[in-house]
Write a structure and sequence with these properties.
154 residues; mainly alpha
C-alpha cells in the first residue's frame, strides 16, 4: 500500500471514528487491521477529539442546571441546616460557570464551529473537485492542533 493510500484510509478511518463507529467496524470498512486503527487512534488523539466534539455548550449548561436542581432537591429533602447554609455558595458558583459558558468564547465554541465546518466541507467534497481528501486531512490536522493547544493537551 502506498503512502497516499494509507493516508486516504487513515482520513476515512478518522471520519468514521469521529462519527461514533467502533474500531473493529472501522477496520472492516477501511480494510486495515484493528491494531492499525487502534494505533492511529492513540497516536493522533482521536479519542480526545471525539470526546471534545461530543461536549457542546448546551449540554454543559443542561448538566449544570440538572446539578443545581439536584442540590436544591437534596437540601429540601434533608432539612439539614448545614446543607441549607452552604447551598447559596454552591448555587452562586454553578451560576457563575453557566454565565461564563454563555458569554465567553472558548474551546467548546471552536469545536462547535469546526464540527459544522467539517460537515459542510464533507458535503462540499461531493460537488467540488478542489476539495480533496488531502485538503480535508490538512484542515482536520490544524483544527485538531488548535483544539489540543487550547485545551492544553500535548
Amino acid at each position: 500500500m502506498t503512502k497516499a493510500e494509507t493516508e486516504k484510509k487513515k482520513s476515512l478511518a478518522r471520519t468514521l471514528y469521529m462519527a461514533g463507529l467502533g474500531q473493529n467496524e472501522i477496520a472492516d470498512k477501511v480494510d486495515v487491521s484493528r491494531v492499525t486503527v487502534s494505533k492511529w487512534c492513540n497516536t493522533e488523539s482521536w479519542k480526545e477529539a471525539r470526546a471534545a466534539k461530543n461536549v457542546t455548550r448546551p449540554e454543559l449548561v443542561n448538566k449544570l442546571l440538572l446539578t443545581i436542581d439536584t442540590l436544591i432537591t437534596q437540601v429540601n429533602d434533608s432539612k439539614d441546616p448545614t446543607l441549607v447554609a452552604g447551598l447559596g455558595d454552591k448555587l452562586a458558583k454553578l451560576s457563575a460557570v453557566i454565565e461564563k459558558l454563555d458569554k465567553k468564547a472558548n474551546v467548546v465554541d471552536a469545536i462547535e464551529v469546526f464540527m459544522a465546518f467539517s460537515k459542510w466541507i464533507e458535503f462540499r467534497s461531493t460537488v467540488d473537485p478542489e476539495v480533496t481528501p488531502e485538503l480535508i486531512k490538512a484542515i482536520n490536522k490544524y483544527q485538531d492542533l488548535y483544539i489540543t493547544q487550547q485545551m492544553g493537551i500535548k
